[in-house]
Design a protein that fits this description.
Elements: H1 6-33, H2 41-59, H3 69-78, H4 85-94, E1 103-113, E2 116-123, E3 134-142, E4 147-157
Antiparallel strand pairs: 1-2, 1-4, 3-4
């Protein structure tokens, strides 16, 4: 006994059931793909490391004369022109949006020699870093005479 709507009504019911199964399947699939845990401390450290690496790489981008902004900062600091590379690098950090997001830094310029490690220049405008920090470094080699310096960028969230 089919009523007024007969096969048409049954078809709408079947379509509704199929749509319901598809929606439930999509929700189930999406819930399985969601992360099972909240971000751990390691994720924060990884993000800080990537911020620091990208920042130092941008400062060390090669120019047409085969030097970089970072090279000139180190060269000017250690060759007596009065530049304060650590302060200048910190000022560049202040020009990023990361400082406003609560990511702070300490910059150290370290001379690597056969005799050992010597901190040439340091800037801790934001104070001494807490225990939970990430340190990223970039080597800068000066020629005439050849000297190797390490730029250390220590990052943390405040």
């Amino acid at each position: 006994m089919m009523g007024k709507y007969g096969k048409s009504g049954q078809m709408h019911t079947v379509e509704a059931l199929i749509a319901l199964v598809l929606i439930i399947g999509a929700v189930t699939f999406a819930s399985q793909m969601a992360p099972k845990q909240v971000c751990m401390g390691g994720d924060v450290k990884t993000q800080l490391f990537l911020y620091g690496k990208d920042f130092l790489n941008l400062l060390d981008m090669e120019r047409s004369d085969h030097t970089s902004w970072l090279y000139h900062q180190i060269n000017g600091t250690v060759n007596g022109s009065g530049w304060d590379a650590a302060a200048n690098i910190t000022n560049e950090w202040l020009n990023t949006s990361l400082n406003a997001k609560g990511v702070f830094c300490k910059v150290e310029i370290v001379n690597l020699t056969a005799d050992g490690i010597n901190i040439v220049n340091s800037n801790a405008s934001f104070g001494e870093p807490p225990k939970e920090t990430v340190t990223v470094s970039k080597l800068v080699t000066l020629v005439k005479p050849v000297r190797v310096y390490e730029v250390r960028l220590t990052l943390w969230y405040a």
